[in-house]
Amino acid sequence: MSTVALLPPRKKPKEESITAWALAARGGDTEAVEHFVRALHPDVRRYVTFLGADPQSADDLAQDTFLRALSSLHRFEGRSSARTWLLTIARRAVIDGIRHSSARPRLADAADWETVVERNQPRDLPGFDDGVVLAELLDALPDDRREAFVLTQMLGLPYAEVALITGCPIGTVRSRVARARGSLMRWLGEADGT
């Protein structure tokens, strides 16, 4: 790990300064490289951790991000902010890390690895039967309510985006989702006998 990553950040620099440092670093200015890395290291580390890296691999991924960025600085033209450019590289580093680790077999410390795998299976998740029941309940909803519910609650799209997709006002989307929820809760209550 470089000493740059260990130095405490002063005050948070502005985007223009960071981009200017990246452009100067591209030209060979070693002090600009130091400023660039120091300014963005905390953000990169936080971002790769957020994307699912465990704390031990987050440091490695952050370092990999900066190695990739510094080796390709000659291609950075400043059309976007240096932060955006670097976080795009960080995202790719995380994806590559996940691909790499999932392609490699994992070693088990236990002699009976099958028991270990069974114990570590997720619990309290809907099973096949629950999934069939949910699909049947969703099919029972009117088409407009089902569409709004699936887009917002299952796919996680914002109400405004669903309004654009469906061609109706946001208030209508909210109403459809609320009615779909109410129907589903009522039907599930009836099925449970409550």
TrEMBL record:
Cited InterPro entries: RNA_pol_sigma-70-like, RNA_pol_sigma-70_dom, RNA_pol_sigma70_ECF_CS, RNA_pol_sigma70_r2, RNA_pol_sigma70_r4_t2, RNA_pol_sigma_r2, RNA_pol_sigma_r3/r4-like, WH-like_DNA-bd_sf
Pfam families in UniProt: Sigma70_r2 (PF04542), Sigma70_r4_2 (PF08281)
Domain RNA polymerase sigma-70 region as annotated: residue spans: 36-102
CDD domains: Sigma70_r4 (cd06171)
Keywords, ordered alphabetically: DNA-binding, Sigma factor, Transcription, Transcription regulation
All copies of domain RNA polymerase sigma factor 70 region 4 type, residue ranges: 134-182
Ion transport recorded as keyword: no
Keyword Iron-sulfur set for record: no
Family classification: Belongs to the sigma-70 factor family. ECF subfamily.
Protein name, entry field: RNA polymerase sigma factor
Annotated organism of origin: Streptomyces prasinus
